[in-house]
Amino acid sequence: MKNALGAVDTVLLLGGRSEIGLAIVERLVRDGARRVVLAARAATAGPPPVIGAAEVHLLDFDASRPETHGEVIEAAAKLVGDLDVVIPAFGVLGRQDVYDADPVAAAEAVAVNYGGHVSAGLFAARRLREQGHGTLVVLSSVAGVRVRRANFVYGSAKAGLDGFAQGLGDALHGSGARVMVVRPGFVIGRMTEGMSPAPMSSTPGRVADAVIAGLRVDAEVVWVPGRLRVFFAVMRVLPRAIWRRTPR
Predict the structure, then answer these.
(1) Bridge partners, residue 55, by sequence
(2) Separation CA 181–CA 158 (nearest Å)
(3) What is the pLDDT of residue 4?
(4) Separation between Cα atoms, residue 85 and residue 177, nearest integer Å
């Protein structure tokens, strides 16, 4: 439950090694969160990381096993009580040329990037609805706002996730629980190592700062950086013949 000042008290990060996810958690702890659950594959194999003054718990979590997601979320609630913020921060970027050569790998990536988030999101929404409060932070991407041929497998999964998150937010309206959709552009970090940064790139820290700002005002959608909102308002209506010629 949020503390007496209305600040976030408990946080669940699904994908406990995510750079963006951890940056968000660190800022929430700095702002007053006291109890954190980090859920990741084989997370319990080592000691919990030190995150400010927070009490940190570890749980095993496998994004590719949706049948286990509900158990993880309920285990987190048993450890720390009501969940104020749930952040699914898992996924794989991959390369389009690899997916072209190996459609099975493409399907497996989509199963995690979209299917895993559907499962985790619905289980989290059930918990938040029962509590009557809490925010599910969905890390979408501008890659899903209009899918480019350079990464259309990844982009299509993000497009599905973005639509799912918006629909889930509408379904939760009036319950006290809510969804915040975050649409970063290119993020410079481990996932994009070796790639040339795109215009209006950001970092995990900048994404985290934008998420915190969005949580404070109960935003429904957060663009990172904010000017991408205007940019993609134009890109959405660009004729397809021109869009095909965007750089690979």
Answers:
(1) 35
(2) 11
(3) 38
(4) 10
Q: pLDDT of 32-51, one tens digit each?
A: 999 999 999 986 666 677 78
Cβ partners under 8 Å of residue 193, min gap 6: none
Between CA 92 and CA 182, with CA 245 as vertex, the angle to 5 degrees is 40
Beta-bridged to residue 37, according to DSSP, are: 12, 57
* Nearest Cα to Cα of residue 121 among 92, 174, 161: 161
**Residues recognised as catalytic:** 154
Residue owning tokens 């991407």: 141
**CA-CA distance, 224 to 185, in Å (whole number)?**
6
Residue 52 scores a pLDDT above 90:
no
> pLDDT tens digit string along 167-194?
999 999 999 999 999 999 989 878 777 7
